[in-house]
Amino acid sequence: MDSKITKADDEVQKLISKKRLKSVEDRRVASEIFDKITLESLYKLANQNYLDILNGAISTGKEANVLKGIKNDDSPVAVKIYRISTSDFKKMNYYIAGDPRFNLRTKNKRQIIYAWVNKEFRNLKRLYEENLSVPKPITTLNNILILEYIVDRQGNPSPTVKVKPPKDVDSFFEKLLNEMSKFVNKGKLIHGDLSNFNILNQEETPVIIDVSQSVVTDHPLAEELLKRDINTIAKEYKKLGVNTSSEEISNFINFKNN
Asked: I need a surface site. Which of 24, 36, 205, 228 has the fewest CB within 10 A?
């Protein structure tokens, strides 16, 4: 085995050894996401002081896992690792194609993943700089994205709205509408997959996550994706008791693709 990879593997094994990964599921997930190149990338990020300890899963998905990382100063970060083996490359190409920021002409799966992660980082940076309620992006390398760890007052990871609906739904919904409007009109992006699965409930404040598929407002799919987002949010919040409609949300956002 390559000595560099061995060194990276040894270093990340030190990280993993500190993790509280005791269940069969956690061990299975770890074996899936820590391939050789990912280990090298984690080693580089650790050397750059972005990461010291991996401390268990925050969330798991088909394409990516989010782990809690600890830096040298004991501050937490979220470490999102995309898995090469299970990612939907057809979907990724669907959202990347037509985005003027990317000129991706390859069928190499790893390169598509790297572009996808870079896209999420750039989208987050764009939104964060416009003061939207999104996690602060910290850095990215290959298939790894490090970002702000969103927590509640007790330091626990903030749950999604799907897991923990807000107590004051009307107030939360009003805040969400403002974020949706800023997302489109200030961030100049369309989320493309907005639902209560990717809106965190941080102490009754919405935090929008998972923006890798988000497209610029002049993207050919922009209006179609925005309409889908609006319809999904209208449907979900009606179920939570909000008196709303797709028309009301659309009028509030007031998106005009000039």
From this structure: 24
| Nearest to 124, CA basis, from 101, 147, 143, 144 | 147
Q: What are phi and psi of 118, to 5 degrees?
A: -60, -35
Please list the residue range(s) of the chain that carry CATH number 1.10.510.10.
Answer: 169-253
User: What's the rounded Cα separation, in Å, for the pair 106 and 164?
Assistant: 41
From the candidates 88, 193, 218, 229, give the one annotated as an active-site residue.
193
CB 77 within 8 A of CB 54: no
CATH 3.30.200.20 in the chain is located at 3-148
Quote the pTM value.
0.85
Q: What is the identity of the amino acid at 63?
A: E
Q: Which fold has domain 169-253?
A: Transferase(Phosphotransferase); domain 1 (1.10.510)
Nearest CA to 127 out of 48, 63, 180 is that of 180
Intra-chain end-to-end CA distance of the chain, in Å: 55
Q: Is 26 a catalytic residue?
A: no
Per-residue confidence in pLDDT tens, the chain, 258 aa: 344 434 445 555 555 544 443 443 444 555 567 778 888 899 899 999 999 888 877 887 778 889 999 998 999 999 999 987 656 667 777 777 777 777 766 677 888 888 899 999 999 999 999 999 999 999 999 999 999 999 988 888 999 999 999 999 999 999 999 999 999 999 999 999 999 999 999 999 999 999 999 999 988 889 999 999 999 999 999 999 999 999 999 999 998 765
74 is catalytic: no
Class of domain 3-148: alpha beta
Say which of 52, 99, 210, 229 is annotated catalytic. Answer: 210
